[in-house]
Design a protein that fits this description.
Layout: E1 12-13, E2 23-24, E3 32-33, E4 36-37, H1 38-42, E5 44-47, H2 48-53, H3 76-93, E6 97-101, H4 102-105, H5 112-133, E7 136-141, H6 160-179, E8 184-187, E9 193-194, H7 202-223, E10 229-231, E11 241-242, H8 247-256, E12 263-268, H9 269-274, H10 279-288, E13 292-296, H11 315-327, E14 336-338, H12 349-376, H13 378-386, H14 393-399, H15 405-415, H16 426-436
Parallel strand pairs: 1-2, 5-6, 5-14, 6-7, 7-8, 8-10, 10-12, 12-13, 13-14
Antiparallel strand pairs: 3-4, 9-11
Bound molecules: D-xylulose and cobalt (II) ion (CO).
Residues 101, 141, 186, 188, 232, 234, 268, 296, 307, 339 line the site of D-xylulose.
């Protein structure tokens, strides 16, 4: 097969002074940071849906993407050829992982049987290409939101037939993920939510979602898939309210339905901002429950209220992300998955390289900066000092559960007033971070 990107050779690290736009200036895969290589820390992943299926259409206009390898059909043969193109791209980029929905990689057939057959035919190629390049599957997932059968949702549909079909689809997607050695499996609640409560039995729908996820856990055990399940929070789009609205809502749901042992979260920046949170907030909420599994790396636009899925090029953002990731001890099965698309105006194939290089360099910088901040120690030292009243005396007694309201009343009477508050020093800390950026 002729090369799809003949003008691009393997992307190499060329150092911060490089003016070569097809080289890394910061991502140096083998460079050691805090005892691990950058490659091991960041575990970059390319998303199949945006990078190889995105046509760069928007609500007002058709796709602009030039993808010379496409023949205009949605055939299995095209899907197989596209898979080889994808691996040429990922290999040249040096991305160790990729992620897909079942329907990104293979076309939907006339019925489930045909869809599964199509998927198998493409999985065969994916497997060959994984073996050839050493690139692995970070996670697989099922697309339960494009087809009209899922107009009311999948696991939360008012129609039990749609639930059943979705279960069959997830069963197959899980099996395929397992076959490809996937490190994890994602559930993003595509249309699991509502557009109006007038027609919605919220409790019943949530119960159905709980039951659906338990069935998935059962099947995972049955086939011996060892990777974690991830839920990906998102508050809205396409529905007005998605049940998995943010990290806290997901964790509450998982607790309520006794699923917390089987799931971690896949946190996405633009979903966090849609929820009115920062990415770091969502990461910290997940990490606090030991449920931070993986990230969908992108960013939104503060001037726009929708999920623009831009490549993450903001170094302040990547620094914050990496501070939390390093604090939790790094990724295990998860990684940095670029759930991001090039802008409609960036329509040439080479833009796919520029975009990923930009995201990878921004994360590499974020990693290096976060490691430097941690080595410096002033930030962590400040936070530790800020809570020092809990390390001894009354604070330690409260934390150990040794006192109740009665003892605390006696203590308050004894101290007379709280005179020990110290400054939060936000501006000092913001300036401290800037010292490293
Ligand atoms: C949608 C989104 C999804 C998930 C996978 O906003 O982020 O692509 O990442 O289903
Ligand atoms: Co995502």
């Amino acid at each position: 097969m002729p090369s799809a990107f003949p003008e691009v050779s393997k992307i190499e690290y060329d150092g911060p002074q490089s003016k070569n736009p097809l080289a890394f200036r910061h991502y140096h895969p083998d460079e050691i940071v805090e005892g691990k290589t950058m490659k091991e820390h960041l575990r970059f992943s390319v998303t199949y849906w945006h990078t190889f299926r995105g046509q760069l259409a928007d609500m007002f206009g058709v796709g602009t993407a030039q993808r010379p390898w496409e023949d205009g059909t949605n055939s299995v043969a095209m899907a197989q050829k596209r898979a080889r193109v994808a691996f040429e791209f990922m290999d040249k980029l040096g991305a160790p992982f990729y992620a897909f929905h079942d329907r990104d990689v293979a076309p939907e057939g006339r019925n489930l049987k045909e869809s599964n057959k199509n998927l198998d035919a493409v999985v065969k190629v994916l497997k060959e290409e994984q073996k050839r390049t050493g690139i692995g599957l970070l996670w697989g997932t099922a697309c339960l939101f494009v087809h009209p059968r899922y107009m009311h949702g999948a696991a939360t549909s008012c129609n039990a037939d749609a639930f059943a079909y979705a279960a069959a689809q997830v069963k197959k997607a899980l099996e395929v993920t397992h076959e490809l050695g996937g490190a994890g499996y994602v559930f993003w609640g595509g249309r699991e939510g509502y557009t109006t409560l007038l027609n919605t039995d919220l409790k019943r729908e949530m119960d159905h979602l709980g039951a659906f996820l338990h069935m998935a856990v059962d099947h995972k055990k049955k086939i011996g898939f060892k990777g974690p399940f991830y839920i990906e929070p998102k508050p809205k789009e396409p529905t007005k309210h998605q049940y998995d609205s943010d990290a806290a809502a997901c964790l509450n749901f998982l607790r309520e339905y006794d699923l917390l042992d089987h799931f971690k979260l896949n946190i996405e920046t633009n979903h966090a901002t849609l929820a009115g949170h920062t990415m770091q907030h969502e990461l910290e909420v997940a990490a606090a429950t030991n449920a931070l599994g993986s990230i969908d790396a992108n960013m939104g636009d503060v001037m726009l209220g929708w999920d623009t899925d831009q490549f993450p090029t903001d170094v302040y953002l990547t620094t914050q992300v990496m501070l939390t990731i390093l604090k939790m001890g790094g990724f295990t099965t998860g990684g940095t998955n670029f759930d991001a698309k090039v802008r409609r105006e960036s329509f040439e194939p080479v833009d796919l390289f520029y975009a990923h290089i930009a995201g990878m360099d921004a994360f590499a910088r974020g990693l290096k900066i976060a490691a430097a901040i941690r080595k410096d120690g002033r930030l962590a030292g400040f936070v530790k000092q800020r809570y020092s009243s809990w390390d001894s005396s009354i604070g330690a007694k409260i934390e150990k559960g040794k006192v109740g309201f009665k003892e605390l009343e006696a203590y308050a009477l004894q101290i007379g007033e709280v005179t020990t508050n110290t400054s939060g020093r936000q501006e000092y800390l913001e300036n401290l971070i800037n010292e490293f950026i």
